[in-house]
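I had to read the description of the data format several times before I understood it. For illustration, here is how one protein appears when written out as sequence plus structure tokens:
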Amino acid sequence: MSAPYVVTIARGFGSGGKEVGAKLAQRMGIPVYERQILRLASDESGLNEALFGMVDEKLTGMTLIKKLTGIPFHTVAEPQDSTFVSDVNLYNLQAEIIRKLAKSESCVIIGKCADYVLRDYTNAASFYIEAPRADCVRSIVAKLGVSEKDAHRLIHKTDKYRADYYKYYTNGGLWTNPINYDMTLNSARVGRERCVDVIEHYIRLKFGL
């Protein structure tokens, strides 16, 4: 049995990164994790999954929370600790799940700052998928049935949130920095199906599959 490998996918909203990750997982015969990580963190900690969903979706007052709690970003608090349900600790619990997955099974992980969490893991390969705004707008309009104006608004809001989330939990990291990833791909130029081909070829070369 070969050693486990992990593929992380970060993506601009409307770029098709989630689709690329799902197709890659299907082609490689490995599981894909996105929101499933929230459920796994809930099962592991005994905390309600809704708490993890709230942290995953909002960054309300996070700077203040960080100052008040003083929890390190890589340390999981003990259940009896008053900070056990703080936003930072809930994130740490998710990060711990990601690390456990990387050690135990081959998989694709979408989002969740997984590239940062696994930055020192030699069995991880990280990719960033993006596309020009016009292509993302067309994708969102077709997928969600919204107007172009609403698609622009959704892309701006979602990408800003992802950038802020990444910056906060990586202590100032830039979500779109190409140095974070093995490779960045423009899905409009390459094509989503060919993005899957490129990533598959790369990970087979990198991990000798």
Summary: The two ends are 11 Å apart (CA to CA). The first strand starts at residue 6 and ends at 11. The chain has one domain: 6-198.
